[in-house]
């Protein structure tokens, strides 16, 4: 599919595709973009970045399935890491505004899930993203309380990525993140339970109470999480217990500073 092998999306070729093949065309373009971005010169990327970012953002509302969603998110994060980051704040604001929409209907949910994937990719790729966590976290927690199972799982996965990317930079929020994840460690939906376990696992190295004063309580929660669990949940429990006990035996050195860094 040569028409899809360029940094910019060939809009005309996409329009000419039969509707059934448009997701395939978009996927092929994103897959090519994902491969070529790491070896693209910064100057070359910056010359087309505004148009490229706009093409990606315009697809957030029509993302078709997880493969396209995760590819789009990773490409967008790499563009900001390699190219110009001056509009990064605007993109984060767009993501937050999308998450604020109180509509989880089949027409709106894909856009919100795509935005979560983007936020996760930003923190995975670039680490600390300024103080954006302060704005994004309350929005996600508010949605988590009313979200359906797919939304709950994706929110918790995104929180895991944010915790890992921020490290000690979000120390003031770690207690609240743990509270949010803890509430879903026994969720009846296995992907949600697994995501909650992954979130707590990400917290262990940066939230000392988990491997000290809360150690016994967390082990008890892990035991309860095994009730009626599937293979993925049991694997997540095993990983959490392994990280938890290893960290308790050999705690990490305390962070030198706990303030947010600026992207």
TrEMBL record:
InterPro entries: ARM-like, ARM-type_fold, Laa1/Sip1/HEATR5. It comes from the Eukaryota. One of its GO terms (biological process) is intracellular protein localization. GO terms for cellular component: cytosol; endocytic vesicle; Golgi apparatus; membrane. This is HEAT repeat protein.
